[in-house]
Write a structure and sequence with these properties.
By secondary structure, the chain is an alpha/beta fold. It has 2 domains: 240 residues, Aspartate Aminotransferase, domain 2 (3-Layer(aba) Sandwich); 134 residues, Aspartate Aminotransferase, domain 1, CATH 3.90.1150. The protein contains 14 helices and 12 strands. The strands form 2 sheets. The protein has a 7-stranded mixed beta sheet with strand order 1-7-6-5-4-2-3, sandwiched between helices. The longest helix has 21 residues. It starts with a helix and ends with a helix. Bound molecules: pyridoxal-5'-phosphate (PLP).
């Protein structure tokens, strides 16, 4: 780890091509490779198993998360599925109660049928986590910060609980990206990304990734990646290599815009609550400062009612109404019906996912333009 983050993002795995000197890793859009004689090849046999463009992307991601190995998948969901397949049937998994809806659906409607048992707990409360560990628990699974109310899990503290009981601790690091948070360095065993979001960063691909520290787990994941086969195309890996070169500058601008909007919202009479870990008023701001090197580009605001939320969304000019997040363009979403419709109403209420809640994914447009856009939309609903 001799070099800084941006230097690693631009160079690791992306050395000039030894054959031609091309400074960009070539797109090896091939499914198979010549063998000189039966079984005699140059390390590449078939592109589900190995592909040079994918290998470059995985090497790069390994360096960014400070792990020992990374595995690229066709989507974030495929990455999560691969990680849960590490567990034997009958395993008990402690998962955060406020996870991405797709993860909850995968756990409850797919993996629970195959003999895994999931229990959902408040990961912000360490005593709750400690008390919930059973003799058959094998994994703790968390996202931090969470979507959409930006609650934090103390990665170092939960790692300690996990390791006291020989459990794997998995962190979905999609919201912060490795630029602002590196869970493996804080004690987590496995990091997951929806590459679709900040790593891809341009709303033009769907992808996933897993990064690990332990070489035995790496070997199992490599086996699963090939045996199950949910791999990304060489072209998508090539797009990721291109995207990641600007991750550091993009994240800085995402954060600058989110902070400016969070500060505006905190002062504005139309806003009841602002959820952004970069504000000193965030209940876990100190933890955020301790385990993250920035606060990211996501924030949510509560406008008090569905009517006001809809009017605000309607008035926005630059923010596009859409699911997803982490792209260069600013997006707005209405969690109750768009991303969190499947969450039971009682849990939604407890988590603060109200009818007045609006989530903003701040892009990298000019700060003044985004602030002016949010200001005029808030003024209209005040
Ligand atoms: C989007 C998302 C996922 C799922 O990833 P896909 O690439 O859509 O399959 C998982 N976790 C989080 C936190 C996400 O935001």
């Amino acid at each position: 780890m001799k070099y800084g983050f941006a230097t690693r993002a631009i160079h690791v795995g992306q050395e000039p091509d030894p054959l031609t000197g091309a400074v960009v890793v070539p797109l090896y859009q091939t499914s198979t490779y010549e063998q000189e004689a039966v079984g005699k090849h140059r390390g590449y046999e078939y592109s589900r198993t190995q592909n040079p463009t994918r290998a470059a992307w995985e090497k790069n991601l390994t360096a960014l998360e400070e792990g020992t190995a990374a595995f690229a998948f066709a989507s974030g969901m495929a990455a999560i599925d691969a990680v849960l397949r590490l567990l034997p049937p009958g395993s008990h998994v402690l998962a955060a109660e406020d996870m991405y809806g797709g993860t909850y659906r995968l756990f409850q409607q797919v993996l629970a049928q195959t003999g895994l048992e999931f229990q959902y707990v408040d990961m912000t409360d360490l005593d709750t986590v400690r008390m919930a560990v059973r003799s058959d628990t094998r994994m703790i699974y968390a996202e931090t910060p969470t979507n959409p109310t930006m609650r934090l899990t103390d990665i170092a503290a939960v790692s300690e609980i996990a390791h006291q009981h020989q459990l794997l601790f998995v962190v979905d690091n999609t919201f912060m990206s490795p630029y602002f948070q590196r869970p493996l360095t804080l004690g987590a065993d496995i990091v997951i990304h929806s590459v679709t979001k900040y790593l891809g960063g341009h709303s033009d691909l769907v992808g996933g990734a897993v990064v690990v520290k332990d070489s035995a787990i790496a070997e199992q994941l490599q086996f699963l990646q090939n045996a199950v086969g949910a791999v990304p195309s060489p072209f998508d890996c090539w797009l990721c290599l291109r995207s990641v070169k600007t991750l550091a500058v993009r994240m800085e601008q995402h954060q600058k815009n989110a902070l400016a909007i969070a500060q505006l919202c905190e002062e504005h009479p139309a806003v009841h609550i602002v959820y952004y870990p970069g504000l000193p008023s965030h209940p876990q701001h100190t933890l955020a400062q301790r385990q993250m090197t920035g606060f990211g580009g996501m924030l949510s605001i509560d406008l008090g009612s569905k009517e006001k939320a809809f009017a605000f969304i309607d008035r926005l000019q630059i923010f596009t109404l859409a699911e997803s997040l982490g792209g260069v363009e600013s997006l707005v979403c209405y969690p109750v019906t768009m991303t969190h419709a499947s969450v039971p109403e009682s849990l939604r209420r407890r988590l603060g996912i109200t009818e007045g809640l609006v989530r903003l994914s701040c892009g990298i447009e000019d700060t003044a333009d985004l602030v002016a856009d949010v200001q005029q939309a808030l003024d209209a609903v005040a």
